[in-house]
Amino acid sequence: MSYRKLCTVMLCAAALAVTACTHTTGSSIAGVNRSQMMLVSSNQMNAMADEQYAAIIKKAKQQGKLNSDTALTQRVKRIANKLIAAAPQLRPDCKNWDWEVNVITEDTLNAWCMPGGKIVVYSGIVKQLKLTDDEIAVIVGHEMCHALREHSREQASQQVVTQGIVTVAQLFGVSSGITSLGKQALQLGVTLPFSREHETEADELGLELAWRAGFDPDAAPKLWQKMMDQSGSNPPEILSTHPSDERRIANLQALAMTLKSQKLNP
Q: What is the DSSP letter of 94?
């Protein structure tokens, strides 16, 4: 009985996932061309991102942490602007995005780009890792490509499907224990690998973006070696949202060689 119910749930899940797929970015040397399922609109994601970004920037400004290091801010913006200028080669419509770049003075080893092109780089990642311009370009390019590929929108769409599966399961009387196991299976079998795929895409497309903007692609494996040395012990890859450091470095080394063998066509 439970088996039949679960089969029904899976069929319903498949029906929920049937939708028009899209390609957010065009062809790339890195080979990032996977079609993506989108159930949430770009406008929804961008509106939420704008609201969150405004709140973060307001708080940083109130604390005196927003662009307080003039030299670092100018450096990051100069690098980011080169990447932004090259980004339409990968996604033409992004030239119309309202891009914004800010630096927050904080020891956090992080940087990110929200949907629609809202970028923040924390001073800690640049200063503690003693990043070169090329390494900054790799990091910012990586984060920008999460936005270009609309990974947040894709993950939000996946959550819509996941919630639909749980709802359908409960409607068909599947016990909470089985439902819980199903959610765990989705987490290990779908959600985390999905995130690792996103990270790999951002690695590859981000490196290509940095190269198209005139930066050295060999900076990528050097950067992630620095990150690996800084991070210490990591969870097993199967339980991580990121690829293993060793796999990431090897992949970027191979891609850097491929990019250097290509003729750049702006």
A: G
